[in-house]
Amino acid sequence: MRTPNSYLTIILGVLGIIPFAAATYISWNNHTFLGFSGFTLFSTYSAVILSFLSGALWGQLIHKDISPLGRFLFISSNVLALAAWASLLIHIPSLSIALLLLGFMSVFWVEARTLVLIRSPNARYLNMRFVITIIVCVLHLAMLYPHY
């Protein structure tokens, strides 16, 4: 049985895809929104969401007594957030998007390992995150296409 929080998680996760899709559309059609290119909208939103997900990992691990693997995952959450920030400083669009793509793949991997480590695996949540991560990664790949 799903709880109200699980419905909210699904709704927010799905709604979170909309800015990625909109920015991809704007970029592919060479439009701007509020004076910003699709690339700028996409990369900044991507970095913010990647940082948010990394912070959520931090929050899951901060109060846990963790093993050496747990410490590695804990540090990984910080590295991923810093990598998201660094990707915004790179003035090579395809490299920036590629780094963000790798960040989303990595944050999912780290989150899945973290949930197992803290003995809190939630199959529905991980399935939802997997599907959303796949969609977000495909949109990152779509953003890479016009830049070559």
From TrEMBL:
Keyword set, alphabetical order: Membrane, Transmembrane, Transmembrane helix
InterPro entries, A to Z: DUF3429
Keyword flag Transmembrane: yes
Keyword Membrane included in the entry's annotation: yes
Domain of life: Bacteria
Transmembrane residue ranges: 7-28, 34-57, 69-90, 96-118, 130-147
Name of one Pfam family that matches: DUF3429
PANTHER family named among the record's database cross-references: TRANSMEMBRANE PROTEIN 69
Protein name: DUF3429 domain-containing protein
Native organism taxonomy: Bacteria, Pseudomonadati, Pseudomonadota, Gammaproteobacteria, Oceanospirillales
